[in-house]
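Whiteboard transcription, Tuesday session. T.W. wrote the structure tokens on the left side:
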């Protein structure tokens, strides 16, 4: 015979037997009920058995309900048990005292069965959710501690001997650990941060920057999006055009919030400036400060390219490396420093190499919202009625992109994406 699901246990505390009998009748048979007729007895039962919820009368001989609740909340073994006051006291001040003592709810007599059951069910559900969250956080900590050794080994392998000698190994390791936290909390967040770090760090090496500068750029790459922690969950997965006005405002503030992490670390002030500037644009149309050209820190300009390559490569299912590089090149001189882009070619092709790609197709399917001027269509593009809008070989300009968006909308869910050439385009 299959075992019954364990019932939640409720402790009823009241000095009047008739009141206990009434609550018992309301809660039976859905819950296991225990009873106590005075405060001292209730405290002992709570410590010994740990009920899931306590329903507590206020006016009792000896220790009253307020003091019982305070004692429960002061005891490590019982402080998390939710307490619902059940009383004939109807003065608002009495209710306030109940909440101040640590109660989660306040039900006045005469009791209505449906109300009691609803309140009990709601607070048991809340306690269960809180317990599950606490367990999840505990497991998260264990998983993170278990991954420290692997992260340390990976960091040692990625950093050159010169970078370790620069004295920044501890900082970069800390960044790896934090990116591991991101990954555990928000799906591929940590993976993406490490890709940005690797892209920007390798580009910095190709430019023959000092070992210290390379290590700092790697660290900035790991933590470039740290300012998004604490924002609405899932917002980091949205594109700007999908955000509400409030979400967009919050998103535009995250580089400055990220810089604040480094304010107390004198040796890493320049890392903070890189984090602050990774959304600045070469033509001055970025944020948060609207910096332009060489006024943007070099590390921030490298991070901007690296972060864009990672986003672009992750937005398509094939030709990821060539699509990302083409997209960056089309933004040279506007969004990105054109002098830096060539430093990313080799590492991008290594990082996003597709083992299963035997013969390149030279084209990729992208969403309407990813279209930019300069892309070349690799297939004819009809509208939903079958009328040809643009043909294979056409190079998109703003007018062509506007035509496509008017015809298909912004999600293009019913028609799929737009096919464009990547790499060397057809003449």
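and on the right, the sequence the group agreed on:
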């Amino acid at each position: 015979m299959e075992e019954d699901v364990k019932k939640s246990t409720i402790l009823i505390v009241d000095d009047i037997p008739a009141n206990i009998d009434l609550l018992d009748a309301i809660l039976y048979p859905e819950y296991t009920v225990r009873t106590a007729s005075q405060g001292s007895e209730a405290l002992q039962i709570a410590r010994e058995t740990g009920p899931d919820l306590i329903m507590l009368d206020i006016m009792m001989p000896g220790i009253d309900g307020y003091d019982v609740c305070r004692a429960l909340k002061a005891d490590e073994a019982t402080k998390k048990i939710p307490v619902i006051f059940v009383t004939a006291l109807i003065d608002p001040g009495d209710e306030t005292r109940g909440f101040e003592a640590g109660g989660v709810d306040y039900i006045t007599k005469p009791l209505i069965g449906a109300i009691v059951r609803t309140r009990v069910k709601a607070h048991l559900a809340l306690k269960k959710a809180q317990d599950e969250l606490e367990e999840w956080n505990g497991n998260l900590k264990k998983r993170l501690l278990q991954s420290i050794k692997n992260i340390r080994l990976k960091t040692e392998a990625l950093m050159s001997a010169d970078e370790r000698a620069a004295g920044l190994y501890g900082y970069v390791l800390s960044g790896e650990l934090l990116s591991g936290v991101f990954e555990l909390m928000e799906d591929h967040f940590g993976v993406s941060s490490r890709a940005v770090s690797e892209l920007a760090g390798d580009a910095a090496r190709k430019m023959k920057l000092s070992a210290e500068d390379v290590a700092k750029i790697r660290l900035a790459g790991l933590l470039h999006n740290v300012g998004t922690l604490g924002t609405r969950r899932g917002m980091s997965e949205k594109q700007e055009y999908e955000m509400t006005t409030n979400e967009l405002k919050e998103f535009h503030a995250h580089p400055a919030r990220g810089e604040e992490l480094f304010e107390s670390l004198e040796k890493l002030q320049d890392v903070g400036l890189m984090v602050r500037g990774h959304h600045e644009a070469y033509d001055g149309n970025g944020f948060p400060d609207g910096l332009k050209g060489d006024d943007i820190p070099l590390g921030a300009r490298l991070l901007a390219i690296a972060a864009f390559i990672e986003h672009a490569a992750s937005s398509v299912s094939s030709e990821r490396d060539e699509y990302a590089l083409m997209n960056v090149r089309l933004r040279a001189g506007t969004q990105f420093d054109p002098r830096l882009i060539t430093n990313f070619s080799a590492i991008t092709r290594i990082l996003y190499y597709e083992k299963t790609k035997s013969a390149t197709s030279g084209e990729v399917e992208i969403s309407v919202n990813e279209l930019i001027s300069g892309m070349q269509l690799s297939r004819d593009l009809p509208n939903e009625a079958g009328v040809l809008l643009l043909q294979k070989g056409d190079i998109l300009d703003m007018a062509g992109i506007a035509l496509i968006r008017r015809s298909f909308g912004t999600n293009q869910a019913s028609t799929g994406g737009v096919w464009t050439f990547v790499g060397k385009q057809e003449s």
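Someone added at the bottom: Residues 9-131 form a domain with the Rossmann fold fold (CATH 3.40.50.2300).
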